[in-house]
Structures are given as structure tokens and as C-alpha cells.
Amino acid sequence: MTPVKTNIVRLAEQAHSASVANENAETSADRGADYGAELSFKPGEDHFERLAALAADIFDMPIATFAVAEGSGLCFKGASGIDAAVLPSLTDFIAQVMRNDEMVLAPPGGEAGPTAELGFLAGLPLRDSAGRPLGAVALADRRNRRFGGRERERLERLAAIAEQELWRPTAIPSQVANSGDSAQEGLGELGGLTHFRNQLRAAAGRSDRDGGLAAVLLIGLDRFELMYNVVGRGDSDAAYSLVAERLLAGSGPGTTITRLGVDQFVVLIPAARDLNQVIGAAQRILAAFARPLEVKGRETHLTASIGISVYPFDGADAETLLTQSSAALFRSQREGGDRYHFCTPDMKRAADERFELDLALRKAVERGELELVYQPKVTLKDRRISGMEALARWSHEGFGSVPPEKFIPLAEQAQCIGPIGDWALRTACRQAQAWQDAGLEVGCIGVNISSHQLHDPGFAAKVEQILDESHLEGHRLNLEITESSLIRDVGAAITSMQRLTERGVSFSIDDFGTGYSSLSYLTRLPIEAVKIDRSFIAKMISQQSDAAIVQAVIAMAGKLGLKVVAEGVETPQQLARLKQYNCDEVQGFLYSEPLPADDMEALLQRIAEARSN
Fold it and tell me: Alpha-carbon distance 432 to 387, whole Å?
């Protein structure tokens, strides 16, 4: 626990005393009046303490804090470098940021000027899911600082991370939920988090007195983004009302329902006789979402994932029980959704590790600590290197070598997959051009593209800019996309892809056969190749069904004029079978493991020397 966290209340009291002593100072209530909250202070939270320390490190600022208006007070969720001398000035500044509802710099570019204690301040509002300001992230230094476009962009990303933390299950105690008394008038009227805490406290008291259980069901709506695409954001409120009705019908009488975020809710069952009653409620909620939702004549399907914790077994307060439910919810979602899980100690440990890994990954991205390695693709016809795939790798001093199948999904959840993707694309293009300038034959460089990148309206322009900067010709870049990344908006994806194919860029479908598939995409998309996932190659010798799938994919692709690349080829037997099936190219440890750029360059030089001899 950091000193800031243990001393923040004492510092606040000192600052308040100093403020009272100064007859010209505003009271806390005066500072907060413009946005309806008296400024007071509470101890910080471990998640945000670490995030504040990370912010101070990234910006090289001695002071960083995340503050949220909670009830009648301003709660410092996390703080680094604060002392009693700067606290009044900092709270004034945070109040101004919330009033202005935009980035404020002091100086320059903001209304506030520097104070005697602080020579520079930068702040940005933190908003709830409806876009309303609920707090601010603030940076400060005792000397004036330059804060340019790059720093502003980083502050915006930091605020986005903080907002996600405020609304993610592991940070539920920090959230400002909707308030109201009646759940019958729509989702916006579901009880707030304070009401939920009070109800849980009362339920725990009854459990201690009369026996029985109090259960906390954390509910996540699966495929929520697809609902937005079907009904449109303008009709989402109507869909939310239907969601509220389903939750009320499934959870039964006497329960408390609270909305925690855009797609998350918590249900309190206050007096369950036993676990069977809790299971019954979870099953009814899942069944309630089995029927499609019809919004203004348009039909959409949603399912729910549920994580369950139970008082007194899993915790004694709302924060602990919600965190335990969060771990169970994560498992339900990871297994495909439309199911429930109870919390276990193993889940809690995994959730804690995920959070630590999340913070470490964000820091690694900011510091440029990720690395690209390169694996060659080899033609079966003449066994020449036709190109190579650039793959991201991350080695952490505490976690060791973190596999991409672990940190890439984490990056997507943490909303830093965009910066990682841009970095990988830029680095790979520069490296490919450097090899070409050195006279080394590398063919086409393949780079994995996330769904986030593919559906960014500026994606095509960004790729063109990177090609221009690196001087790499478009026909030497192959972008690998997955089937699942096409679900969101195929039309928009095709538009970006067609623009880039005019520049010479080619596209491949990666991990073919493992995701959401629609064979019509193969005829609509401007793709050059499909890559058969390694899971099929690994079992094609021992499993007839996998061999049949591999053979069918190769035959189908051939009819469509598409090239086929087999991933994960590790044995001569697999290679021989793929030759028999007329596969075009292979990639795997049989020829080379993924290599760092220097090692790959040495390999290319040896190949060039062998050919010249």
C-alpha cells in the first residue's frame, strides 16, 4: 500500500484546516458547487494507485491523480506525489476541469493560471457511459512544462484507460451508477450502486441473524456490439428497456438490480434459502434472453454471461463480492457466454494476475518494450522464401515471456490494441525495406491486423502513410485479418481493403476455419490467400476429420483462385501430406522458428550466400 493511500485522508484534513484559516479561501462546498458535489476525500484504491504511479512515470510528472465525484464528495481513486501544500490548488483545478468538460492546461491554453504551489497543471474529464463528466485525471508539476500534441494524445488515452477501469468489473466500487427507485420505467431507473450497497448490507445482516444466503450475480450482455449494429444507437434505449424487463422477469421478486456500465448489471438475491435457489435464478435469467429482442420491428439476439458470488462464503462487503463475481463472469465469457459460474479461489487469483498483467502491458506499450519476430513462409514448389510474417512478442521481467495468445486478447480488452497494431505495422514495413535496401530477398511481409484497426475509418490512409514513410512498395505488404474481425461491418472493411489493393497491398484470411465463417466473404473480399490454422495441421496425420478439412480448404481455395498457406508445420509427415494435397506454402518450426530481426537477417544472408555459390 502506498504512503499516498494511507495518508490521503490526513492530508485532506490538513488542507481543509489551512483553507479555513485563510479567510479568502473558498470552502470545499464552494469549489464543488458548480457541478453539484462537496469536495471531500476518501482513501484511494489499489488499482488506481498503480495507474496514478504509471501516469507519473509516463509523463515524467511528480504529481498524478484520478478523482471522481462520488455522492457529496470528491474521491481520490489514486494519487501519486500529493502533499498537503498542493491539495487545495489541485482540487480547485479538478473542479474547473469538470465544469469546463474539456482538457484544461495551466498554463497555457486554459482559463486557470499556475499557483504558488504548482507551475503547471493538465487535466481531462473522466466521463460515464452516457458521456457525462464524473471526475478528472490531473497531472501537475511545480515548474512549468511543455505539453504538446503527443502529450495531449497520451493524456486522452490515459483518460480512456481510467474510464474503462471505472466501468470494468474489477473496479466496480469506483463506478457512479444510475440512480432511481423504480425499475419498471426502464433501465435508466434501476437502483444505483449506493442503494445496492445498502441492500447488500441489510441482506448480510439478515443472513447473520436468520441464516440463508445473499447472492451477487454480475451479468454481462454477450454480443452487445452486434445489437448496436442491428438496432442502431438511436433505438438502443428501447432495447435497454427490454433488457430491464428480461432481468426483472428472470431474477424474481425481492431482488435488487443495478446497472454498472453499458453492458453490465448486478442482481442481488437478498435471502436465498440455498444455492439451488441461486442457480434457479441464474438459469431463469439465461432463459429470459434466449428469446430474440424485437425493437421497432427489428430483431436482435442477445445472450448473457453470469458470475456469481455468495455471502458469507465469498466475502463480507460489496466490493469483495463484486470482485469475486467479476472473476466468475470472466470465465463464463471466456467459455463462450450464455452460461453462469460461481466464484472459486483459482478464479480470484487469475483475476488479480490479469489486472497486474494489464497494467504491465500498458506500460510496455508506452515504453516501446514489445518486439517483433519474423517467421518465413516457404513455397512447396521450389522451397524458396516467399515472404514472412511479423509476430509481436513481449518479455516481462516479472511474468517472463508472455505468449501472444495471452497478451493480444488482453490488449483488445484494455483498448491498447490500436497502438500495438500501428507500431507493428510501421516497424515491419521499415524492417522489410531495410532488408531490401541491403539486397536481401524477403518477399512479402505479412502483418496481423486487428478488428479495431480494420474498422477504423482512417485505417487505409494510415497504411498508405506508413508505406510512404518507409518507402515500401504496396505489393510487398500483406495484411492478415481473421474471420471474426469481419463480423462487425463487412461493407466498411471491404471499402478499406479495396482502397489498399489499389495501392498493391494484398490481404490474407488468418486462422481460417476457427472463427465465424461465411464462405460468401471469400468471393466478396479482395483477398489473395487463406491461412489454415495450426490446430488442423497438428492433428491432420492422426485425425481423419482434420485431414479432410485441410484437403477441402485447399481444394476450395484452388477453385476460387486463392493461395493456401498452412501454419504450424512441424514434421516431415505433415509437409508430405500438404504436398499431396497441393498446398501452396507452409510456415512453421520445420523450416524456422520466429526469429528476431538480427537473427532473421543473418539467416537471409546465409541463404543468399548459398545460392550465389
Answer: 10
